[in-house]
Specification:
elongated; alpha/beta; five-stranded mixed sheet; 2 domains
Length: about 180
């Protein structure tokens, strides 16, 4: 028997609603740090929807939390990985004090959800633009300052050890800054 899972896209209200629902069923305290599209939507930088909530910390969810996430997915007939820790390896590359730059988005009884700060998101989005080629519009929507571009550029240059990576990042930042100020 095939189970039909409807495609879905999360808006800011959906992100908040799902986090509240998860908070209500958690047995232990959980602190998460949200990156990606859900972060940008929650901070109001972009209006588009996203299909999941990418979490950079914790590196993985406990079996109990995974069970609760799956239960919520089944209740709403959405993908089981509506919230996931797949990008958690990127936490290794974040700059010192990134947690202090993060912003509290939701504080419930058991769940605290933070949004990665602007500077750190800019660095991650620069690396993602080179990797995936589809994050440039998100960066432009954030309207980074020169200081934020520089912080993100330095972070993104160190993200990949490929011989031409740093040069690709420098060129990308120059192009995006030119576009931003056009």
């Amino acid at each position: 028997m095939l189970l039909f899972v409807k495609p879905f896209f999360l808006t800011k209200n959906d992100v908040l609603s799902l986090l509240k629902e998860l908070d209500a069923v958690l047995e232990k305290s959980l602190e998460i740090y949200i990156i990606g599209g859900a972060n940008l939507i929650a901070q109001g930088f972009i209006q588009r929807a996203t299909h999941d909530i990418d979490v950079i910390l914790p590196p993985q969810f406990s079996e109990d939390v995974l069970r609760q996430i799956s239960h919520i997915a089944n209740e709403h007939h959405i993908e089981k990985n509506w919230i996931n820790t797949m990008p958690s390896r990127d936490a290794l590359f974040l700059s010192k004090d990134w947690q202090e730059r993060s912003i509290l988005f939701y504080k419930g009884k058991k769940l605290s959800a933070f949004l990665l700060g602007r500077k750190d998101i800019i660095g991650m989005k620069l690396a993602a633009t080179i990797d995936r080629g589809r994050d440039a519009e998100d960066l432009l929507a954030m309207e980074p300052t020169d200081e934020e571009w520089e912080f993100g550029r330095k972070w993104a240059r160190a993200y990949d050890g490929h011989s031409d990576w740093a040069d690709l990042i420098d060129k990308l930042v120059a192009q995006l800054k030119k576009k931003q100020h056009a």
